[in-house]
């Protein structure tokens, strides 16, 4: 039997596809604003995702670029640092313009003055056998005068012909660098580096310091020395030795302030090469701004006293101590170390000089000795701001470690001085300005034979 073909029923699947096609066919006819409003959260999500990826990509590239630029800048800075070369033909420097051209003295006191003479300074000029040299700056009154003292104004300093003048600021005590050179030029064998607020106890520097290291006037004695028991100890607080455990000197790394233990035993050393002699100050000792502002009660002036019966104490090689420009004797064998860095904060200058100089002293067999109270400094109830010490608190600990580990490849002292100064520039302890300043000062010293007669210790 023939069966007539008939159209079967449409499958549901086919019907659904047709509906989808129908709905899609009408999409172009929808209003665009309606479509955006219905899909807004999707659009925002996608846009934010794209923006986030873009920002992360940009930041990553910026960070890489910044790091690269920083590295390139540092590399370029190091490439620009060049060790200066000594000129073969140096014109001699002679004092022909100052009223003191023919004046000579073996013992000088060098101070910086910014105000009219203090009572302490008036007493300094009365010390028998010593010549006071007052160095002015831009803050010094134009009519400054003190009988018995030689005063050098900015104008007079400019006429002396020293090359270091090109590097010195006009308003700072570091202009004492001119005074050191002037004293050396006029016969100095000993220089007392002082300030105008300290009075010498009993008015006799010879009673406290070792002014004669050789000959009949020398004290032939054995000096106590800090022990070598702890090879990791690179710095000491000398105030503990002299009876003040809770006081610390400016220039002591703050991380070492809590080291309060007394020395259990000392070694001994023969005197004769204590070319740098650091005195302790009663009243207001040389302390940093951290101590001054945290230990001071109201407006009461500090009057700290140290044990004047404690013996002087020497520092062995490998161990350092803060050395300042307020109460220190320099002998001729260490005159090369009388310079004050110009590229660091003001109250860090003499401390950095002291550490730099101590390291070089080891090269000639010299050492530093700290003495019991030699002066009384009066507290004017004012302290230097922390900002003027910033290079101390940031770098001094690292500097000491660097200096103790530093080794020289040179043979002559002049070369060692430049080598260390260059290394300190590379390490960022001071800038290239101080490298050039150090080199220039050696040019000036060369006229006076300071470096020619200096031999390194073997």
How would you characterize this protein structure?
With about 450 residues, the chain is an alpha/beta fold. The protein has one domain: Spore Coat Polysaccharide Biosynthesis Protein SpsA, Chain A (Alpha-Beta Complex), CATH 3.90.550. It contains 13 helices and 11 strands. The longest helix has about 40 residues. The N terminus is likely disordered.
CATH class type: Alpha Beta
The main pleated sheet reads as: 11 strands, mixed
Mean pLDDT across all amino acids: 84
> Whole-Å distance between the termini?
132 Å
List unreliable stretches of 5+ residues. 1-30, 62-75
Number of helices: 13
Given helix and strand content, the structural type is: alpha/beta
Give me the CATH fold name. Spore Coat Polysaccharide Biosynthesis Protein SpsA, Chain A
- Provide the number of structural domains: 1
For the CA atoms, what is the radius of gyration? 35 Å
The residue fraction in helices comes out at: 25-40%
The SSE string, one letter per element, is HHHEHEEHHEEHEHEEHEEHEHHH
Global morphology? globular
Instruction: Write the CATH architecture name.
Output: Alpha-Beta Complex
Relative strand content: 5-15%
In total, the number of strands is 11
Protein name: Probable glycosyltransferase STELLO2
Organism: Prunus avium (Cherry)
Keywords: Membrane, Transmembrane, Transmembrane helix
Transmembrane segments: 40-59
